[in-house]
Amino acid sequence: MLQAERTQTAVHPDSSVTLHQLAHARAGDKGERLNVALFAYDPDHYATLLEQVTEERVLALFAHRGASRVRRYPLPNLAGMNFVIDDVLQGGVNGALNLDGHGKTLSFLLLSMEVNSS
Amino acid sequence: MSFLLGSGAGFSGDRTDAAVAVVAELIKRQQPSALVFETLGERTLAAAHRAMRDDPESGFEPLLDELLAPVLRDCLDHDIKILGNFGAANPGGACQVIAELSTQLGRPDVRIAQVHGDDIRQQLHSLDLQRWEAERLDMPGDDALISANVYLGAKALSEALAMQADVVVTGRVADPALFLAPLMHHFDWRWDDWDRLACGMMAGHLAECGAQVSGGYFADPGFKDVPGLATVGYPIIEVEQDGSLIISKPANTGGCVTEQTVKEQLLYEVHDPANYLTPDVTVDLSHAEVRQLSPNRVAVTGIRGKPAPERLKTTVCYEGGWQGEAEISYAGPNALARAQLAAQVLRERLIFRAPAELRTRLDIIGLASVFDSDSGELQRSASASASGDYRLRLAAEHSERRWVARATQELLALYCAGPAGGGGVRRQFQRRVFTASYLVKRSDVNAHASLFESSPLGERRSERYVAS
Description:
A: alpha+beta, 4-stranded antiparallel beta sheet, two-stranded antiparallel ribbon, 5 helices, disordered N terminus, B: Alpha-Beta Plaits, 13 helices, AtuA_N (chain B)
């Protein structure tokens, strides 16, 4: 009944869930620029994502990595949005000392964001 | 009738048995088709140029033989065109290997074409270059330069197919152009038919990373389950004359093609979805829609195109000094404190054992690593069990090899002189490559194709034909 419980949690007005419960994502890199595409599992949650997963909140989530700018491109036909995050890769695939110079794992950093589901 | 585009590999290091099921499906469907191998990342090309300095007969995809041997004869026998950027820094060398392999397989009559013009290293400093918008690095001097390659479009590849090539070998081209070229050749689309070009380019974009559109790089157990990931089927894209696309995969393979897998790959490495720049067309994805037609078949519609950008992207690789890594594990009671003490000991040692400009980073894998910053902000605030299984990782970089060797040696020395119970040290270091991206004028790039003449075999003297 895990699925049912999850759905119940998701419709409670004051409930806080991780974005991972509502959406899936994939990250890609080019130079020092990361993109993370985020899609609602259920198109009904697209409005929640638009309202809460803002450029400001994403910038704050990646601030410790040196993010300098976030742009969000909404894609209503796909119930999703593309985030382009600058200067977050600490040197990128060729320059970073990080284990993951591509930033491929960072899709799940975005999915760890807390959202209020309504 | 649709044209079928199969993917045989999505990066250098991809599964070398993936193409077998794709080719079997292409043969079964009895339609005009092509098989594409995309094996050339930014760093792969720099590594290939370095390899060629030591051995002039290397410099192409090291697994070329292993990738092609299981499928080459079937493709030649069934007129399935093969295109690959497996030529890397030495497309001629790759052509030679393919010619020899074809002869071994009983098809010495193979026609192999090579694409030229991506390597602009010799004229780099005389060109009118613009810095790419996300680029911060300055152009390196000649002594540090390893390679400079333009991302070519599909035209020269399409010309190679017009020469009736069975196999087209390239160095650097825009990855999806490998897929667009056979469509241009087959459907005879105009080079300013922007909507169709955009559809063809996105067919390539969706397929160029192999299984990433068909269930690979997607599974998240309990949330996004994928059946049979160990035998995931690589994609086959069905393209119609009007540019419409359907993503599918071979029968009897694992993985899945769903609206979700296709959406994730549609935006992969895309920035502004209304202006996705490729050498042949600017793609607008802002009206794109995906629709599941039946199990493992998804249609993508609404892709639009705009004129191609004025300039072509060029990636320059140059020497970036040395980078090294070393790791040691701590497990069981109080392991976290022992790993943290080991990190502290290393920090103290490196202050007086290495020069101040040595750049280092310390991760405690199990506590915080890939999400963390170089300064270890998350590591200081993260909470984790005192007992567990932790691995201290040091990464270091310097222009001189000896200081990277010294830093990693200091981690090794934790075996006898560090905290209790450390084990499993691994240590490695290598030359590092920097890359920088620029934009060149189209008129400065001379992309063209020629049929390969395999010299040592000697029996077949194909005409040398060069088109520009």
